[in-house]
TrEMBL record:
This is C2H2-type domain-containing protein. Keywords: Signal. InterPro entries: His-Me_finger_sf. Residues 1-24 form the signal peptide. It comes from the Eukaryota. SUPFAM superfamilies: His-Me finger endonucleases.
């Protein structure tokens, strides 16, 4: 079924390119529908695919279908006109992300050719998009491995019949580091081998000739650098812990020397090469030695370093080695090439102890999640489960973060104003293509509820075809009125009883700050409900919106500062997300100046949206 769809799409594209179809727009729409159907089926089959070969075959088909879909959209007629803008690479090629079928993939994409005839010029344009994607990937990864797949349409004449097929050319998986010259890498690892293979394929008496450049698939994979180098000094902070053995090798085999130092430990001068047998005498690393290896890296944070795992063995054996992969520089701008060097971690506890705890006692670390225990027995029990479930470090809260506590105390107060609204619409008959009804809003009503003064609550409504414009004007005016309320706060006024409770030595000024020595009655903050400490500054909290009896209680100074009335007015519509939002959003976005922030479910449904008014404190949510 999929093969039949792809064959039909290839034939359709060929007809459209040469202009041999009289129903171009109808054929393009039908083709786009079939491409959408094919993408869904390919995603479903990818989830069920078990073998690597099957996954790679399906990914190749997915790349081709996405390219055909984009090419069909480009061929759609979108009206006439003059475009004076200069054509860029984005007009000639297009990037699409595709589903990855492999766990080690960071990102998989396809760059579709829209206008190019020559493969060399197509690949040159591809570099601009390729470079941006790799830079983004290297923001999170120290290094990645990348391979590309060039897809082209080839033709071969057999008598009076022309055979057409899609051929693919794959480049090798090559490493890219943060200091790699991307343009030089792309020319050497992508353009040169693909152009060479295309030339050799067509000159091999195969009879095939390149008819059309289709796409370039890009696979960005995870990569842990395993290639060491000659000797690199340990950072002084790590060296001072005396937890690592750094062999001063004069060759490019630091990995082998690090393993040798772990398998043949010495007490005196462990950094000297002469203390160990040559690594060539040690057979193949993990398998033949019944050996397991974990690799850790250093990440610079501020002035110090943090140790993190970068490679963890799947099966820990009796003879286990932990290695530290260090660099010759960390985040420094330098012309010197980035080099890596392996050292043996002799004592993992020494290396990690200060990083995770201020307790200087001996700790037993899990080398997978880096959680530590006081006793070896507890570590053994933990490791049995950790190796099955944890691929990362477990970070537990410290004593200050032991409990989750409510902190947004300002949410304890009711908002000053709430708007409840609803609208009604009628169906207007239409005879315009597929449209036969139009929903027309004809009436809107809203009720403003004030939480601190019921006399300020009111209801208004309006009927007419311009009801939504009326509602926008009402909300704009209401925002100005509410802003005036917030800009004109009332001073604090205490009753004699409240003055006595606060016991402020009859000081009647309106300043909120008083020293603790003058206060004897209030013992707890009425906002956070915590007791006052001797060094706390206690203040009188009051409601700024009420002129009389507005004292609320004694409070911490910090609590009082953050205990503010919100300037966001909630607007609650009946069935807003399902229906009313379609009428509201367009009007408030265009009729009232200010930004609209959306929290969408789909392009047509929204959980909520916030209207921020220009030159006004108030926002409607």
């Amino acid at each position: 079924m999929l093969a039949a769809i792809i064959t039909r799409m290839r034939a359709l594209l060929t007809l459209l390119v040469v202009g041999s179809t009289s129903r171009a727009n109808e054929d393009i729409k039908a083709g786009l529908r079939e491409c959408t159907l094919a993408v869904r089926r390919l995603h479903k089959e990818l989830k069920q695919a078990e073998t690597i070969g099957k996954k790679q075959h399906l990914l190749g088909q997915l790349r081709e279908v996405k390219s055909m879909s984009k090419q069909l959209k480009t061929l759609q007629k979108k009206g006439a006109g003059i475009d004076s803008r200069k054509e860029t690479a984005c007009n000639r090629i297009h990037w699409d992300d595709t589903t990855s079928a492999f766990d080690s993939r960071i990102r998989t994409g396809v760059i579709t050719n829209l206008k190019h005839k020559d493969p060399a010029s197509f690949l040159k344009d591809c570099f601009a998009i390729f470079k941006r994607r790799i830079i983004n990937a290297l923001k999170k990864e120290a290094a990645v491995k990348v391979n590309t797949v060039f897809g082209g349409e080839f033709v071969m004449a057999k008598g009076d019949r022309v055979q057409m097929e899609h051929k693919y050319f794959t480049t090798s998986n090559s490493a890219i580091y943060r200091d790699t010259d991307l343009e030089q890498w792309f020319n050497a690892k992508v353009i040169a081998p693909i152009v060479r293979e295309l030339s050799e394929f067509q000159e091999r008496d195969s009879g095939w000739a390149l008819n059309r450049v289709v796409n370039l698939g890009v696979n960005i994979n995870k990569f842990t650098p395993q290639v060491g180098s000659s000797y690199i000094k340990l950072p002084q902070q790590i060296k001072a812990k005396q937890a690592c053995i750094n062999v001063n090798n004069n060759d490019q085999a630091c990995f082998a020397w690090a393993l040798t130092s772990a398998m043949h430990p010495v007490e005196k001068d462990p950094q000297r090469m002469s203390k160990y047998p040559h690594y060539s005498e040690i057979p193949n690393v993990e398998k033949q030695n019944n050996l397991s290896i974990n690799v850790y890296i250093l990440e610079k944070r501020g002035r110090g370093f943090v140790t993190l795992p970068t490679y963890l063995t799947n099966y820990k054996k009796d003879q286990h080695v932990n290695l530290l992969l260090i660099q010759n520089r960390y985040g420094d701008v330098d012309d010197e090439p980035l080099r890596y060097h392996y050292v043996w971690i002799k004592d993992l506890s020494r290396l990690l102890s200060a990083q995770l705890s201020k307790n200087h006692m001996k700790k037993h670390f899990c080398d997978r999640c880096l959680h530590y225990f006081s006793f070896m027995e507890r570590l053994s029990k933990h490791y049995a489960d950790c190796k099955n479930v944890n691929d990362c470090k477990v970070r537990l809260p410290n004593e200050d973060q032991e409990y989750l506590k409510f902190k947004n105390f300002k949410n304890k107060e009711k908002v000053p104003f709430v708007v409840y609204a609803d609208l009604e619409s009628v169906l207007k008959q239409m005879n315009s293509g597929n449209k036969y009804q139009h929903h027309l809003p004809t009436a809107v009503g809203y009720y403003v509820m004030c939480s601190y003064d019921p006399s300020l609550s009111f209801y208004r409504s309006y009927r007419g075809e311009d009801c939504m414009s009326w509602f926008d004007r009402e909300m704009n005016q209401f925002a100005e009125n509410v802003e005036t309320v917030f800009l004109c706060p009332f001073d604090i006024k205490l009753t004699p009883t409240q003055e006595t409770d606060f016991n402020n030595n009859n000081n009647n000024n309106n300043n909120c700050l008083y020293s603790l020595q003058k206060i004897t009655q209030a013992t707890h903050c009425h906002i956070c409900e915590q007791p006052f400490k001797p060094d706390d500054v206690k203040v009188r909290d009051h409601n700024h919106l009420i002129p009389e009896n507005n004292y609320r209680g004694a409070a911490h100074n910090s609590c009082n500062i953050n205990y503010k009335d919100g300037v966001v007015v909630p607007v609650i519509f009946h069935n807003r997300s399902g229906y009313d939002a379609n009428f509201i959003l367009e009007n408030i976005a265009n009729d009232i100046p200010g930004r609209v922030d959306l929290l969408p479910i789909t392009k047509e449904k929204y959980i909520s949206f916030t209207k921020n008014l220009d030159q006004n404190l108030i926002s409607f949510h």
